[in-house]
Amino acid sequence: MNSTEHPRALLAALYRAAVQGAAPFPRTRDAVHAWFAARPSLPADAPVYVIALGKAAPAMMAGALDALRQLQRTAEGGLVVAAHEPKRGEVGSDLPPHIPLMVGDHPVPGPASLDAADALEDLAHRIDDGSIVLVLLSGGTTSLCAAPIATLSQAVGDADRAQSHVANLAETLLESGLAIHEMNAIRRRVLRWGAGRLAVSLVQHGAEHVPVFAISDVIGDDPAVIGSGPCSPDPLDDATFLALLDAHEMRARVERVMGTVLGLEGAGHPPGVPPRDHPAFARVGYTLVARNADAVQALASEARALGIAQVVVQQAPLEGDAAALGDQLARLAVQAAPNVQGDTLVVCGGEPVVHLRDTTDRAMSRSDDESLDVAWSDEPLRGGRMQVLALAAALALEEAASHGDARAWKITVMAAGTDGRDGPTDAAGAIVDAAVPALARRAGRIPEDDLSTGRSWFPLDVADALLRPGPTGTNVMDVVALLIRA
User: Which of 295, 404, 405, 429 could crosslink 386 through cysteines, CB 3.0-4.6 Å?
Assistant: First the structure.
């Protein structure tokens, strides 16, 4: 059976290859082993602690512990803060009992995130002088161990109340359409472990070396952005930070108490961060373990191995509005279809954003004689940036096909997050073609309205287009593949 005759199965297999290309266990194991091997003068009896934070934390911890075993070193203690507890048999499911695993809240921090941040503080207090503290970072860290800075807790009375304001800020930023580097630039100012504060705490409590191993979930792989930079200094001075807030009209968007803490009210100043020349940062080393380009290249390599005639990798990262990108990519694929020689795959990666429109205004704008099959006021928002991109692509393909362009039927699009979870849903993304919108309409959906009101999951679900791999244990943003059949 020729796999290219079954586009959905082929694209699902290519997605799995992309995820494997950024597998946390082997990459972390090899990076930790190389770090120690490059420093033979390190004391053999120096205590070692391991902290793993983020969606890939369990597998990264397992990789680091395996490297330590090979080096005949042991971890005195540590902590894992993850988005889920690995199932039996998954990598990272059999961690030693002296390294606890906690599950934080994501994408909006809550009580579990506060508990995880408190556990991280407790661990910092137990570190021995002269220790080596391995910090393993991956996507989701910002939310999973989010906790308010003391200034915010004092402003509202206690950390529990302050945590609700941290959650409200996260929701506001997620709905704003800001890029991840902009969101984290704002969040790290009010987070207990953001903007290098974790590194400072570890060094103050005795850490001699703080090597950081990161799986990047951000475009540009900036250490200050990954996980909101728990071990990296904040690159923005106060004036630039305030300018960022004003550029996105945060004075009108955030709660008053948060605005005051951020320095937006009166003659206030933004929360202080450790200076870039703080001596703690001299003890921090940084190693990039995996990034989006690794997943994209792994997907492309697997496509070539499966016999795809032409594989084109777009070097520019996907940025900007997800719906606009989906529409644009689909139209470009339709234009390219007549010129392909053999099956062709276009691969790209990155992290678009979603801009939500007001659902009330959307419903009000419909003419009186239009049937309103969906209860806009009652139905929850559900979807993610990859589902938005996929649905927009499907609508563009359908439009081209409806105008008699048979090339549109040759194209199948896969768009998915490498972590296995696109937004707060059960899907990584979707695999779509020109038939998906019609299938959704037969089930009572209006895909155009779903796209514009943040409900992309619903039409993709009823059209059986969602890609549901479950949590993958890694997170290097998103991958998109467009298959054009000859």
Answer: 429
Residue 268, strand partner residues: none
- CATH code linked to domain 23-290: 3.40.50.10180
Return per-residue pLDDT of the chain as tens, 486 residues: 344 468 999 999 999 999 999 999 999 999 999 999 999 999 999 999 999 999 999 999 999 999 999 999 999 999 999 999 998 888 888 999 999 999 999 989 999 999 999 999 999 999 999 999 999 999 999 999 999 999 999 999 999 999 999 999 999 998 887 888 999 999 999 999 999 999 999 999 999 999 999 999 999 999 999 999 999 999 999 999 999 999 998 888 999 999 999 998 766 789 999 999 999 999 999 999 999 999 999 999 999 999 998 999 999 999 999 999 999 999 999 999 888 888 999 999 999 988 765 433 333 333 333 333 444 446 888 999 999 999 999 999 999 999 999 999 999 999 999 999 998 899 999 999 999 999 999 999 999 999 999 999 999 999 999 999 998 988 899 999 999 998
Burial degree of 187 (CB within 10 A; 0-12, 13-18, 19+): buried
Give CA separation, 1 vs 5, 6, 10, 225, 479, in Å: 8, 9, 12, 45, 26
Structure tokens at 218: 């951000």
> Matching CATH topology for 3-14+293-484 and 23-290?
no
Residue 227 contacts residue 53 (beta carbons within 8 Å): yes
Q: Which long-range contacts (CB under 8 A, 24 or more apart) does 39-47 make?
A: 42/132, 42/209, 43/130, 44/73, 46/130, 46/131, 46/132, 46/208, 47/76, 47/127, 47/128, 47/130, 47/131, 47/132
Helix or strand holding residue 389 (H, E): helix 385-402
What CATH number is given for 3-14+293-484 in this structure?
3.40.1480.10
Tokens of 49: 């602690």
- Bridge-based pairing of strands 411-417 and 429-432 is antiparallel
> 132: which residues sit within 8 A by CB, 6+ positions away?
42, 46, 47, 48, 49, 207, 208, 209, 211
Do β-strands 466-467 and 75-82 pair in parallel, antiparallel, or remain unpaired? unpaired
How many angstroms separate the CA atoms of 484 and 482, rounded? 6
